[in-house]
């Protein structure tokens, strides 16, 4: 046992020794093998620590030395246990609280379903509830593998499921099957999605309605949804389409139709710009939504500042069992802003305008398009404080989309 631990178990008392000759008292303690430590002197008084058992032995030594001893502090297990005994109901309440928390922690109170897109989480929760997974059940009674297999059997759309425990919460993680899309066999034409000049056309089904080099407008038919009629072949004559006297057989046209397409976009930037920055001051508003009621825990002045921006955070507690009552908190933080003007060079304004124009045109160009050329033009304006850029982009892309034939 270490000396510090021994002192804590036995208890220690800090005493103040006063008198004409406090050194005589210390010498008597040494002679009686009474251990003193932590000695210090303030004015004419001497302070020292002594074990609780030795404290009761120093009374005759105090009389012999002609000094007075007073207690200034104490520490150790005897004093701590005495304090606890005085507040035994408080300690008992803390112990009962810990036991209650431990008991409640062994139950499941919240169930979350993640990973669902097409499948309803309520459907998965219902299957889990049939096999005993519901709020208020003991963790040890839950058979995870059995519930996982039941969900896979009951819901064919789910390909994988895993049940994970996090404290009093259960997370049912699922992965849905990727079902192949069913092809629509309804008759349809391939029409142009935008204006352009045809560069390539490959008809996999149907009859081509345009050829390479043709200019088309949005909505023009590119491949007709009509099946060609082929004459029987002979060794000397290849198969050829014949004039149709009967109604044409309608099919769903398919193929690849590529065309050159042009896009334009504009971007502008001012030489004199207004910059807004946060000052660091803020106001907070906290609202509590309980069912259909709203209660303000903290209100912010309106308007909070002359110039400001806000951030909103929503936090919602999980629903209890099948209750429709929801509890949600809304925290809105208002940040004060200060505005000041900043002048930039013409080169910086051109770069900003160019970046905005390129960003704008990039949003309307399909990802599959092949960019052939970019043309950047600086426009002349009557406004001296404004720079405007025009960006033109030439692409080659598939412009055909399917359009059903009305019969």
UniProtKB/TrEMBL annotation:
<feature type="transmembrane region" description="Helical">
    <location>
        <begin position="89"/>
        <end position="110"/>
    </location>
</feature>
<keyword id="KW-0812">Transmembrane</keyword>
<dbReference type="InterPro" id="IPR010690">
    <property type="entry name" value="YqfD"/>
</dbReference>
<keyword id="KW-1133">Transmembrane helix</keyword>
<keyword id="KW-0472">Membrane</keyword>
<protein>
    <recommendedName>
        <fullName>Stage IV sporulation protein</fullName>
    </recommendedName>
</protein>
<dbReference type="Pfam" id="PF06898">
    <property type="entry name" value="YqfD"/>
</dbReference>
